[in-house]
Amino acid sequence: MLPHQREFHNDLHTRFLHLSGGYSSGKTFSLCMKALKMRWINRLHSGGLTAPSYPELKKDVLPTFEAIFEENKIPYRYNQTDKIFTFPWCKGKLYLFTAEKKIRGPNLSDMGINEATLISRERYLECVGRVRVKGAACPQVYSSGTPEGVGNYMYDLFVENPMNNSRVIYAKTMDNAENIDPAYIQSLRSSYDAITLQAYLNGEWVNMNGNQFYYSYDATINEDKNLQRDMSKLVLVGLDFNVDFMTATCWHLTADGIRGFDEICLEKNADTKKMCEALIARGYTPDITTIYPDPAGKARSTKGAPDHEILRQHRFEVVSRLSAPRFRERQLNMNNKLEKGWIKYNPNTMPRLKKDFLSVAQDPVTLEKLKDDPRLTHASDGLDYLVDVLSPFNRPSRTESVRFR
User: Strands 84-86 and 94-98: what pairing?
Assistant: First the structure.
């Protein structure tokens, strides 16, 4: 066992135990091994193990158990319908739960929680509430997960306002390096900004600059007041659809990333037709301009036909994913690109984008952009869509992107 796995495995006295680890640091393996040990220590009673969702249970937890059983020749039975493991040495059972719905079932001697930072505080407390069998040898709630920022409820329960008899054990990805492809480590370093890497490589709880969505934004890295349009280059437009404050940002693609030089904002009673006319009037004609709009625009419209269809009617080339990326994925991707200087723009000619970079906040629970101020998020949303297609999060390409006139 790795040192952090040994600590986690052998601690039978802490009531609330959490393993905070980086990606591929052996968290799930440790959790499953701990669950089997608990089935011996609490063999007169039943225990539980919760995963964030059924797909994660199926692709992560169950394969780990199966590998452990096969390698160690452990006899077991699994009821797939009820999601229950039974073992010949244990009078009790191991019940498997998922956090998509309320955690119900029997009283338990112990409960393990996989990827606890991805379930809600309510579900975690429901798991705690199930551990109430009288006379259990080790009534422990043990969990593992990758930290998701200091806004996560687990940080509050274990670090900021720790529960009585609670403990955190930290695990680094590099501790498990001999079992990981070096290319995977490099892919993590290239996909995340330095602050996020503290969480996803070292298992540390980090403050991503309070509730700022674009926490890696640095004027010294991302601003260039000399940037302007190069008439010999194609124009790429990130576009967010809104009736008010419909906003387009204009960019060139270079070997080092994207360079922004202009923005257009239609403030009142805007529609996609008016934006097309504004782009053409500014000199961004269809023969030299590609638009990267909100993917939802293919199915709805601010007025009349779907927005994507209106863009094509004006002969613009449209490139879009089939669906918008999750806010968390967008945030990690954008902050990585900002930190590495892949995104640079002229703040004098793109003031709305600058205001977004400095002011857009995120909900600490859902991690989505806060929409309290109707003037914010439009310029940056359009940029998010453009970047997600040109340089998607942790993927070299996206076959689901579609390109058409």
Answer: antiparallel
